[in-house]
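Quick illustration, no need to memorize.
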Amino acid sequence: MKPSTGIITDQAPADRDAPDDALASQPIGYWAGLVHEAVTRHVRDAMARIDVTQPQYWVLNRICGGPAASSRDEVIVQLAPLTRELHEIPRAVDQLLHRGWLRNDAGQNLRITDAGENARARLRGLVTALRAEVHKDISDQEYVAALKVLRTMLANVQGAESS
């Protein structure tokens, strides 16, 4: 990150049509919120067209890419921070069990089935295509720079909250 110039930019009211030379004064919460809502809606709408939810995809990825065995409770605890709704992850687990994409082993750990792995692979292709749409005209370097800025802002706020 570049060192601060010591100049504090005044905050302007949120304006979707602000010209480039006025963007430094725009509120990050407004813009981050717009992007979050639009990208989430775009992904969830695309998944809904094939009768899958984003939380179901998260669960499949967690079961497939996580430790050798995960209980229902472990999956719920690990994925809960991704959602604002308390029951979204438990509901996704139940839906995947009902659909036959997950099963419980003898130790009551969740395992992905062949049908679940096939679905996860198809979803991964969809998510990769959606990512390409969202990242159109944005280089990896620009994306990394944007995430570093957001990560620094998060650290700044979290540091201020603990003071």
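The longest helix spans residues 140-161.
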